[in-house]
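Quick note —
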Amino acid sequence: MSILAIDPGNIESAFVVVTDDLSSVIDKGKLPNADLERYIECAPIRPWYRNDPVKHIAMEMVACYGMPVGAEVFETCVQIGRFEYIIEEYRKYATYQRIYRMEEKIAICHNPR
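Predicted structure written out below.
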């Protein structure tokens, strides 16, 4: 089994596909959003997917930290919705979870700063 993780952006988004034990990276990249949408839609036809299907999908979600935000943040929110619409097709095969940046920082750095 593998994990697909997405770091969405307003113009480009990053992704990584890793084994479920996080021991190896299967695929990774940073693509224009339209290309990543096609990548997600076509994942089942990729050779790595046949050998190691995605069973978990995680995507970073924006959160309010009391700071003013610009148009880029709202465009990122729209893009998250587009990705989630595509991911909905996988929901019968894979779990999906939104991850917040604060959770990432604490998990990786053991500190919210």
